[in-house]
Amino acid sequence: MNSIVRTTTGWLLAGMLAAAPFAASAQKKPTAKPAAKPANAESAIREADIKRDLYALAGDHYRGREGGTLDELKASVWLADQIRAIGLQPAGDDGTYFQWFHLQRTRLTKASKLSIGTHQLKPNADALVFAPTNYAVTAPLVYVGTGTAAELAKVDIKGKAVAVLFSGTVPADLSFRRFLTLTMNTKSAELLKAGAAAVVFVADARAQAIYEHWGHIYERGRYGLPGDPNTKVVDTPPLLLLPESAKDWVQQAGQQLVVDLKVESFLYPSVNIVATVPGTDAQLRKENVLFSTHQDHDGVRAPVAGDSIYNGADDNATGCAALLAIMRAFKKQPARRTALFVFHGAEERGLLGSRYYSAKPTVPPSSIVAVLNAEMMGRNAPDSAALLGSIAPHLNSSDLVKTALAANQAGPKFKLDTEWDKATHPEGWYFRSDHLPYARLGIPAVMYTSVLHVDYHTPRDEPSRIDYPKLTRMTQWMYLTGWAVANRTAPPAREPGFKLER
């Protein structure tokens, strides 16, 4: 109006308006229509694409993609090629799709020796050694049954190696694996404090299954990022576990335990794969919604029923195929915020890739407004799934969870299993995937999963066992959540006072 009234015509119009105040007041300004929300590209997520990608990644060609091996690196290059073909921008180091990091491996040397009497025991084949240690001792062995106070009172254990039959009742809030480790650590510490020179546990029927599964794990040693406490070489008495079959001969009197363990350490390369679809909003594109998964698995190990390749189809080729599908959707229709995709390396070594990226992200740390993590999404009941991080104490953003629950209702309508998210669940599943390092930093984070199954970490986790319609719906659910977060004006609010139980 100011520009109009500066003209002669404008003055006349002003006078006319002054003479007719009621007519002027009757005129109303048109109401501005809210900006239309962009339509999503859910239709770009196709089951055929997901199935093709999963068979390629989880086939025998990549030999189980073990973290820190050439197989993991080859699979990572394949993923980067798919991402390039989809058309995403690289967001790793130096204009590439890759963020390289080292993992440190600490293991017993092949020269390490272990024996009881006439039994020569190959470390981590005939006897598990729970932590690499430089340690040598020769001591007489005494058997104390289950190690009760009454049994120990009958034996002088000072300066002797003590053989103990594993026993105990598992609390409801612990998995047997965790119970075994905690019990052995506690009992061993008590006996060493009482003067024992070493402690040897003998597996009962329950522990035998763990023994058989852990042998190929401990043979590889321990992994961590350089500087991690668990990669430090120690000189302490080893924690040993014999198989159940040793119970008969370990009780023989007059035997000696001979331990001569030596440690070696190596650095290996691993890699995160990072790509992005820039947002369309001039301001919100500076913020990132991070879609997370991991590409590694267990590699080649001791054969089970003739199969030695642990393909990791569900764990976690499902997550990788899902992220590729979500990339196609965001490429077809970008959102207001930037969509950031990170495939984390060496997850099975202890969340090493996500720990590294969360500490050294290739985007400003404060720009990451939410993390949506894909972990094992293709097995179990077709209509059931879990959203970890949805209940306290794992809930670090009610806002993000409400968005995810709304996306479920708008999309696949899974029946949500909340048991796996409880602090009392014996598996501690919340602490075992790549959302965790981000959640520890306070970034709103959730995990999409169809939870564990009987083929978990076995050679039977094959592409043929995946429920592809379910995996497609899990992918759509994750996408719809991310799409909503990427287009809303305010980022997901963080939960005040968030604190994990461990």
From TrEMBL:
Keyword Signal recorded: yes
Tree of life domain: Bacteria
InterPro entries on file: M28_fam, PA_dom_sf, Peptidase_M28
Extent of the signal sequence: 1-26
Organism lineage string: Bacteria, Pseudomonadati, Bacteroidota, Cytophagia, Cytophagales
Keywords: Signal
Protein name per Swiss-Prot or TrEMBL: M28 family peptidase
Domain Peptidase M28: 272-478
Keyword ATP-binding among UniProt keywords: no
